[in-house]
Amino acid sequence: MDLLSKVSSAITEHRLLSKGDTVIVAVSGGADSTALLHALATLRSEWNLTLVAVHLDHRLRADSPDDARFVARRAAQLGVESVIEAADVQMLARRRKLSLEEAGREARYALFARLAGERRAQRIATGHTLDDEIETVLMRLLRGDPWDALGGIPMKRPLGAAEVIRPLLSVTREQIRTDLSARSITWREDPSNRDLRFARNWIRLRVLPALERKDAGVRDLLVRFSRAARSADRLLTDLAHRFAAEAAEEGAHLIRLPLDEFRRHPPDLQRRMLRWAVARVTGTTTGLPVVLEDRGLRVAAKGRAGEVADLRAVAVRVSYDALEVTVPQPPAPRGVYRLRIPGTVTAEAFNVTLTAEIVDPSAPVPSRSVDAHEVDLDAASVGRELQIRAWRPGDRMIPLGMRGKKKVQDLFVDDKVPRWDRHRIPVVTDARGQILWIVGRRISEIARITDRTQRVVRLRARNTSNAAVVGLA
Q1: Contacts of 342 (CB under 8 A, 6+ apart)
Q2: Where are the domains of the chain?
Q3: Which of 30, 42, 163, 365 falls 20 to 30 Å from 270 in CA-CA distance?
Q4: 327-341: per-residue pLDDT in tens?
Q5: Which range, of 56-70, 200-214, 293-307, 393-407, averages the lowest pLDDT?
């Protein structure tokens, strides 16, 4: 089977593409990514694809601009749009305390994710090969990574709203170079790929050849091992998620797992239960670095009541009989802003200015309950002074059109307001503390305009800075 047939087969078997997809194609200029670009360009009409070739100059070599020019020319020859950008990877590595490899990868994927969002791309295609997977598995084995990391490189995975796909993952580098040479297709060679200071190069150029001298079939063994590890990981992950979901209590920014239940499971399940909890409270599937996971697991497994592990994105805390996973929240704006009627007040903590005026009741703005930046309320129900503050646990109101009170927290859930955004939404109350308006979201039944309304108070909310105000466009 030739290279194009293998790519086409992988796309179909693993459902890597859908008709009409926009695909960000990562192109370094090397043989693998060049082969990927040519293959997708050939399949473009069959799948009705829109392709965007993307290259990031890492500025690590004096001749790296030549790679960028090569990619731009090759894309143009194939009738593919190209996007060429540059990043100071060395500075990023120093600032983030990463290796050059890690910093380069971080910079590339940040670019891919941003462009995918800007272009509304469904797929991000990378040129990872079977050799890359073998090297990755061996490198992780030698590094002592946990079992779930030994499943190699996935054929596809989410990245933001898009999906990273690897159509060349069942193809070897040798097959790619043979195919390109047979078709007289040139590529760029990166001399840093032979630099033994990089761990992957050392694995590829020294460790694997040494292993192959002992056992010529070691590559096949590593592939089979990674497939078995991936299968085991899926089983363990499903079990862990089921155990965690059955035992967990969920609150605002919080997951509580019974400590006895958590600790009775083996470490591999505990790790996956912790990941489940982190994903639930953060709302993202982006995992934590292994070193941070290990820190959280140490506290979870042996910590005393009150002990906390700060994992940057989340905190893991032992609380008497429970393990709590929480998202650190910025403090809610304190204090109360007062608004005389008529009048104007700027609530700096919310980046919003509110204006109240008396208007002709004969032509009021219709009372609106969602995404309203301007509302009319019955003056007799409002009083002479309004208060603006953050919502508080236990707050209740009677939403427009309803008879009974409802928790504000439940209204936020109904409106799908993320937990971390809720304290940024100003709440307008009367002098007695009754909620009249959740700005940009809901107004209260108690202040609605009726046939008996004699005077109308019009409230307007306006964003006063470049910072986002939740609910205000």
Answers
A1: 356, 357, 358
A2: 3-219, 250-326, 337-463
A3: 163
A4: 876 677 888 999 999
A5: 293-307
Report residue 370's pLDDT band, with 50, 70 and 90 as the boundaries.
very low
CATH, domain 250-326, list 3.40.109.10, 3.40.50.720, 3.30.465.60, 3.40.50.300: 3.30.465.60
Q: What is the pLDDT of residues 302-316, one digit of tens each?
A: 777 767 787 777 888
Q: Per residue in 97-106, pLDDT tens? A: 888 888 999 9
Q: Which fold has domain 3-219?
A: Rossmann fold (3.40.50)
| pLDDT(368) > 70 | no
Tell whether the torsion through CA atoms of 397, 403, 404 and 407 is positive or negative.
negative
Which of 368, 395, 382, 276 lies closest to 325, judged by CA? 276
Contact in structure between 124 and 54 (CB atoms under 8 Å): no
